[in-house]
From TrEMBL:
Source organism (scientific name): Rhodothalassium salexigens DSM 2132
Chain ranges of the Phage capsid-like C-terminal domain: 129-416
Compositional bias of kind Low complexity: 75-90
Compartments in which it is found: Virion
Name by which UniProt lists this protein: HK97 family phage major capsid protein
Alphabetical list of Pfam families matching this protein: Phage_capsid
Region of interest (Disordered), residue spans: 74-93
Length: 419
């Protein structure tokens, strides 16, 4: 007879979560008290003590660190292993693919390609050499990318088998309405469609290891490769998803044309921005109002899955803002499964968003799942190179990634400008 699963409160992992939640709550309380003191000083003296400002900066960094730690410990128990030997029940072909690829990575072309189960797998080599990584490693890289690439966490990701992906978007719906059973119907207007084709580019990385490392039977080469590749890919693609120009790379949502006009007026493909009213900062009078305006500029149907996106430094500035009742707009995620939020919406930190500056679109808010589409072409390829940089063995790895705005009404920008 098996024992019952212990309640969550009895699990060591949940104890760690609770401890982190407690520290996060304490740090935010200290931040609020220090910020309240700074506001009083500004109102009395016109400025704040440098030591108080420094303390606010340290507390904000500690809150960021604890928030990341909370996400990490909350996900740890459910996160699958990145890679490793095939499980006993795996399909034989998958096990052979893993064994072949590991042999190729560790020993290069000395792998015994004459064995029948490897002959078919060897045909995955392209004209320039190299092999398609096995499915399990491709999935491991994908899982890691989703965990660390900010835009991937909230956008739509589509896997494609060819170089082209096109999506038809209706830029004005068909006319409709309510009528009685025998009432005349007005002619409906045919819907108009716009075609969006996310530009695709080849992303590459070139991690290296020594042959001594590769010869070590206890060195998990698949997990190392998945981690290293995902980190390199995430850095490059994250920048492109935000501000890429679409030339042999994804086109970022900040590269779209922008306008201050509303949804019903703007041209399709143009993203709406709202100005803070002050160049390079929030308005000194009621700074919270523009954040509220930003939220409610988004259609109600899009707000259900909406999120903010900004840098850590911008979030530190936003964290100090209160509403008209003196309540802070940002709140830490102190309940299980509840992320930290701004006005009740999650905040996605992206180092590739602009910092607050005159004219900068430093805050994005929207339903990125509806607004932005990422395309991943199936098949990551690896070419082993033991010659170029001895004694290191390099693994030149490529994959094709695309991205573009697919619904320009689903993303809004806050511009730090007078108008």
């Amino acid at each position: 007879m098996t024992s019952a699963t212990p309640p969550l409160s009895d699990r060591p992992a949940m104890a760690e979560v609770k401890a982190t939640v407690d520290r996060l709550g304490q740090a935010f309380e200290a931040f609020k008290q220090t910020n309240d003191r700074a506001e009083i000083e500004r109102s009395l003296r016109g400025q704040t003590d440098a030591l108080v400002d420094a303390k606010l900066g340290r507390l904000s960094q500690e809150i960021d660190r604890l928030d990341r730690e909370l996400k990490s410990v909350t996900d740890a128990a459910s996160r699958p292993a990145l890679a490793g030997p095939a499980a006993p029940g795996d399909d034989a072909g998958r096990a052979h693919a893993h064994a072949f690829f590991e042999g190729y990575v560790r020993r290069g072309r000395d792998t015994d390609l004459t064995r029948p189960e490897f002959k078919a797998l060897a045909t995955d080599s392209d004209a320039d050499g190299g092999y398609a990584v096995p499915e399990e490693l491709d999935r491991a890289i994908d899982r890691r990318l989703r965990a660390i690439s900010p835009v991937r966490q909230v956008a739509t990701v589509v896997q494609i088998g060819s170089g082209d992906y096109k999506k038809l978007i209706s830029d004005r719906g068909a006319v409709s309405g309510w009528v009685g059973e025998t009432d005349p119907r007005a002619e409906t207007e045919a819907p108009s469609f716009a075609e969006v084709a996310p530009p695709l580019g080849e992303l590459y990385a070139n991690p290296a290891a020594t042959q001594t490392m590769l010869d070590d039977a206890f060195f998990d080469v698949a997990a190392w490769l998945a981690d290293d590749l995902a980190d390199e890919f995430a850095e490059r693609e994250s920048a492109a998803f935000v501000a890429g120009d679409g030339a042999n790379k994804p086109r970022g949502f900040l590269d779209q044309p922008t306008s201050g006009t509303k949804d019903s007026v703007r041209a399709f493909g143009t993203v709406q921005y709202l100005a803070t009213g002050t160049a390079g900062g929030f308005a000194t009078d009621a700074p919270a109002d523009r954040l509220f305006d930003l939220v409610y500029a988004l259609k109600a149907g899009h707000r259900a899955e909406a999120a903010f996106m900004m840098t850590a430094a911008t979030l530190a500035a936003v964290r100090k803002i209160k509403d008209g009742d003196g309540q802070y707009l940002w709140s830490p995620g102190l309940d299980a499964g509840q992320p930290a939020g701004l006005l009740g919406f999650p905040v996605v930190e992206s180092a590739h968003m602009p910092e607050i500056a005159a004219g900068a679109d430093a805050i994005a808010f929207g339903n990125f799942r509806r607004g932005y589409t990422i395309t991943d072409r199936l098949g990551t390829r690896v070419l082993r190179d033991p010659y170029t940089n001895k004694p290191f063995v390099h693994f030149y790895t490529t994959k094709r990634v695309g991205g573009a705005v697919t619904d320009s009404e689903a993303i809004k920008l806050l511009r730090f400008a007078g108008s």
